[in-house]
Amino acid sequence: MKSLIVIGKCSHAICAAAVAFAMLGIGTRTGAAASHDRWLDLAEQIFKNRPLSDGTRLIALEMPYRAEDAAVVPLTVRATLPASDPRHLTGLTIVIDQNPSPVAAVFTFGSKANVNAISTRVRVNSYTDVHAVAELSDGKLYVVKTFVKAAGGCSAPAIKDAGEAKKNLGEMRFREFASKPAVSRLHQAQIMIRHPNNSGLQMDQVTHLYIPAFFVADLKVWQGDDLIMAMSGGISISENPSIRFTYVPTGAAPFRAQAIDTEKHVFKGEWPATQSAM
Amino acid sequence: MRVALAVSTVLSIACFFTRAPAHSQDSTAPLDVMQIAPGVFVHFGTIAPMTRKNEGAIANVSFVMGDKYVAIIDTGGSVQEGKKLLAAVRARTSKPIRYVINTHMHPDHVFGNAAFAQIGATFIGHKNLPGAMATHGSYYRKSLRPSMGESLIANVKIISPTELVSDALEIDLGNRMLALRAWPTAHTDNDLTVLDRTSGTLFTGDLLFVRHIPVLDGSLLGWLKDLDELARIPARQAVPGHGPLVTHWPEGLADERRYLNRLAADIRAMIKRGVPIAEAAKEAGGSERDRWQLFDAYNARNATAAFAELEWE
Ligand SMILES: [Zn+2]
């Protein structure tokens, strides 16, 4: 996916350009027809000329219709393929159409991990369509969408005091959830990283200057040497990024994670596997 | 800048007020206020969302009169409410309004500021308030326009405090000292309280909600910590940000403390069990539903914010 490269290397200059572009888009268009046009434009930019098929019966995108807190809007995408379908998820792109930088995250999944559901939290800046575009192992793209009522998520100021945020920057936590092997061979885990994930639209409360975009651009999780998932994140991922995912364990090897932010800080973590692989 | 940006009609009304206060009372009916101690007046807002019909008058707004000056504590949820508050002051005294104190950034407490812009008062707030107003102001205007209507929103101006409180500040109204205190992040990151030393009345701003469900826009753990500290203030009575006068202090903090502790306990247990944030938001605090007004409007939001905070404990 080409878009992955663009997002992963999003420099401040590119982000600013993207913001300016998005503002222009919002300023000149209104109404349902415009939001439809907007998605067509976005789809063309992000996926080039690759066809997008309707993913309605293959994947599900779950978000609250009315976001309680626009800076922390839970989002889950899960594969709903029938058991007889041999295909699985290989990649996933989350697009929040009306956000200043619409591509929230691009995920790629390890070939052995069989990730079939992923949850994270995003910022939503206005009433918007949200699109999830999944790539299945047949190499094709499938799209589903939902509508979210929320506003102001990207510009909501960071609440935590700056000193503490700096002290904890990059702290990682990894958690395996109790699985029910009788029901599914899928396990579930969560990776969390302490990071302000500044959107570039938040204002410093003392200087009144906009805080430059500063976010986790790249996050990978492995079990042993096998990649479970990789995420290229944008400014729409909430403060303290948290990603919960299902996976098929590849053995008893420890889990590893590595995150790189836009200032090239590298954060690493390693945790022993605590649940036996079935 | 304020003048330059002002809509001409607003400006002329405001000037009209300062030049001819006697006439202004004819055009604006005074806000209904209750004297809760000598020289201490409160308008108790209705427990409801801000609407066109209630003119945003949902928070408690107050004024305190000293021998020389008057201080306003919160200005209400619209310029219209602010003007009515000003009329209520003018109906009782001609002493100058020396100070306008904003207890925090929320629109129901500061949208009336413009009514006091032209009378030479000093605006006072928490050191974080100017930044919070700058980041949230236009968002509040936009998000309240549908429910309040263009005419109530159009003349709202974001007026920032020029006198900032980073810890504590005493102001003198003439034989009447008000003790202002800035708090660490709790309801918001810019909460300020006012203690009238003469009557022992504590104005808590939204650090205390009574009957109206508490709304979390800062830090749950910070709020619980601040409650312990608040309880040590030797007040005789308290004016909460929302809800009726608290005559038993600090017992009047108990309901809010119970709600916040319940929310924390529920969410901690859910985090432990591995419940995802979206489900936690639907269930946490549910046992408190019947004890609060506007529960369904704010509880899930509180739970979402609390979850994101507590999972890092
Ligand atoms: Zn408030």
The fraction of residues in strands of chain B falls at: 15-25%
The fourth-level CATH homologous superfamily of chain A is SoxY domain
Assembly classification? heterodimer
What characterizes the major β-sheet of chain A? 9 strands, mixed
Sheet with most strands of chain B: 7 strands, mixed
What is the spatial order of strands in the main beta sheet of chain B? 1-2-3-4-5-6-7
Count of helical stretches of chain B: 11
Helix content of chain A: 10-25%
Q: Please state the second-level CATH architecture of the largest domain in chain B.
A: 4-Layer Sandwich
Order of helices and strands of chain A: HHHEEEEEEEEHEEEEEEE
Helix content class of chain B? 25-40%
Specify the CATH homologous superfamily of the largest domain in chain B.
Answer: Ribonuclease Z/Hydroxyacylglutathione hydrolase-like
Instruction: Quickly give the structural class of chain A.
Output: alpha+beta
Please work out how many helical segments of chain A DSSP would assign.
4
Uncertain segments of chain A:
1-30, 159-163
CATH architecture of chain A: Sandwich
Which spans of chain B of ≥5 residues are poorly predicted at pLDDT below 50? 1-26
Structure report:
- The complex is a heterodimer of chains A (278) and B (313).
- With 278 residues, chain A is of the alpha+beta class.
- Chain A has a single domain (12-277), classed as SoxY domain (Immunoglobulin-like, Sandwich), CATH 2.60.40.2470.
- Helices cover 17% and strands 36% of the residues of chain A.
- Chain A has four helices and 15 strands.
- Chain A has a nine-stranded mixed sheet with strand order 1-8-7-4-5-12-11-14-15.
- Chain A is globular.
- Chain B is of the alpha/beta class.
- Chain B folds into two domains: 2-249, Ribonuclease Z/Hydroxyacylglutathione hydrolase-like (Metallo-beta-lactamase, Chain A, 4-Layer Sandwich); 252-313.
- Chain B contains eleven helices and twelve strands.
- Chain B has helices at 2-5, 8-19, 21-27, 79-90, 107-110, 129-148, 150-154, 220-231, 254-273, 277-283, 295-310, and strands at residues 34-37, 40-43, 61-65, 70-73, 97-101, 122-126, 163-165, 168-172, 177-182, 192-196, 201-209, 237-242.
- Chain B has a seven-stranded mixed sheet with strand order 1-2-3-4-5-6-7, with no helix packed on it. Chain B has a five-stranded mixed sheet with strand order 8-9-10-11-12, covered by helices on one side.
- In chain B, helix 2 crosses helix 3 (21-27), helix 8 (220-231) packs antiparallel against helix 9 (254-273) and helix 10 (277-283) packs across helix 11.
- The N and C termini of chain B lie far apart (45 Å).
- Classes of the chains: A alpha+beta (278), B alpha/beta (313).
- Chain A binds chain B through residues 62, 64, 68-69, 72, 74, 76, 119, 121, 151-152, 155-157, 159, 161, 173, 175, 177-178, 188, 192, 194, 202-206, 208, 238-240, 242, 244, and chain B through 128, 130-132, 134-136, 139, 142-143, 185, 189, 218-219, 274, 276-278, 281, 300-301, 303-305, 308, 311-312.
- The site of zinc ion (ZN) has 5 residues of chain B, from loops.
